[in-house]
Amino acid sequence: MVDATVSLDQEIDAKGRVQDYIALLKPRVMSLVVFSGLAGLLVAPGTLHPLIMAVAVLCIAIGAGAAGAINMWYDRDIDAVMQRTRGRPIVQGRVAAPEALAFGVVLSLFSVMLMGLAVNWTAAALLALANAFYVFVYTIWLKRRTPQNIVIGGAAGAFPPMIGWAAVTGGVSLESLVLFLLIFLWTPPHFWALALYRSDDYQRAGVPMMPIVAGAESTKRQMLLYTLVLLPVAVLPSFLGTAGWIYGGAALGLGGLFVLCALRVMRDETHRAAKQMFAFSILYLFLLFALLILDRAPGLLSGSLLA
Amino acid sequence: MSGDDRNRRPGDSKVHRAKRGKNLAILAALVAFIVIVYFVAIVRMGG
């Protein structure tokens, strides 16, 4: 029995191509993680050698990818029954489950060690904390137990700008906590918009997402609440001096649009508005961090207008 | 074994190609790691 399992794993391992291992790293999720981490690096007060900065970004990317691989290893049973995830490499039998776990653990350790040795140990500790939070708190503990899974688990995805900030300053400050809070509050409306139109998928897998447990109406109300709380929080970087007022104005406008999306979702009986809100939520965060970078960089937006 | 695999030279099967691809990727990752450590060491010592 053991021999048969080992030989099956070896056979699966032999099938796996490099692309399958890249897919284990969840490259699409990684792109937003890397971008927000880069924003943290660029807006933090102080300077960092460009090479060390590149290494910090690399470590954030690899760390996030590694956590994604471990998540795919643990969730392979529910991934197999969900339409959205059934094409993943482990479910498809292209990568053996133990191989994926080893891949994730090795990369996670590697990213933390490299961050510590090349950048600083505060950033490394935050990266380790983010990975541990994603794997142990979100994936293993909360995801299958509570509809608050992505609310609390969302903290894992909120760490990157804080890691970037710590890479430059060597510490954690109010400004970096605000950047953390920004992604933390953005996560519930983002994921619940997806869960609203994928609720059948989550129900089949037995994942207690908010629309399944509390119903669509309650979820929509909570989504609106989060977008309303997020609106002033997104403007805070301007008050704290992390960004200029161009960013502040844009954050207000984008936040207003996000609230409007939530209101449209509340009035919509179909899934159309939820799908649009999910798409907009990604654009919202991307634009917000892009503006944060631009309005911080000297002479680009506010600087050039004020000069 | 399929007819295609029988006509190939030893070491040229689908499995071998996949293995070779992974081996090359690991080699590239190791070389990249060495290069990173080398330049990081220079930057850190210079600072």
Summarize this, please?
Chain A is an all-alpha fold and 307 residues long. Chain A is built from 15 helices and no strands.
How would you explain this protein's 3D organization?
- The complex is a heterodimer of chains A (307) and B (47).
- By secondary structure, chain A is an all-alpha fold.
- Chain A folds into 2 domains: 16-170, Tetracycline Repressor, domain 2, CATH 1.10.357; 173-307.
- Chain A is built from 15 helices and no strands.
- Chain A has helices at residues 2-15, 18-24, 27-43, 50-74, 76-81, 97-118, 121-142, 149-169, 174-197, 199-205, 210-213, 216-240, 245-267, 272-296, 302-306.
- In chain A, helix 3 (27-43) packs across helix 8 and helix 9 packs antiparallel against helix 14.
- Chain A is flat, with a radius of gyration of 20 Å.
- Chain B has 47 residues and is mostly helical.
- Chain B has one domain.
- Helix content of chain B is 81%, strand content 0%.
- Chain B is built from 2 helices and no strands.
- Chain B has helices at 3-7, 14-46.
- Chain B is rod-shaped.
List the helices and strands and how they pair.
The complex is a heterodimer of chains A (307) and B (47).
Chain A: H1 2-15, H2 18-24, H3 27-43, H4 50-74, H5 76-81, H6 97-118, H7 121-142, H8 149-169, H9 174-197, H10 199-205, H11 210-213, H12 216-240, H13 245-267, H14 272-296, H15 302-306
Helix pairs in contact in A: 3-4, 3-8, 3-14, 4-6, 4-7, 4-8, 6-7, 7-8, 8-9, 9-12, 9-14, 12-13, 13-14
Chain B: H1 3-7, H2 14-46
Number of helices of chain A: 15
The tally of strands of chain A reads 0
Computed over alpha carbons, the radius of gyration of chain A is 20 Å
Mean pLDDT of chain B: 81
Strand content of chain B: under 5%
Mean pLDDT over all positions of chain A? 91
**Class computed from helices, strands and strand pairing of chain A:** mainly alpha
- The CATH class of the largest domain in chain A, by name, is Mainly Alpha
Per CATH, the superfamily of the largest domain in chain A is UbiA prenyltransferase
- State which percent range the strand residues of chain A make up: under 5%
Write down the overall geometry of chain B: rod-shaped
Low-confidence residue ranges of chain B:
none
> End-to-end span of chain B in angstroms?
59 Å
**Overall tally of structural domains of chain B:** 1
Dominant shape of chain A: flat
Considering DSSP H and I runs of 4 or more, what fraction of the residues of chain B is helical?
over 70%
Q: What characterizes the major β-sheet of chain A?
A: none
Q: Please outline the major beta sheet of chain B.
A: none
Count of spatially separate domains of chain A: 2
Helix content of chain A: over 70%
| Coarse structural class of chain B | mainly alpha
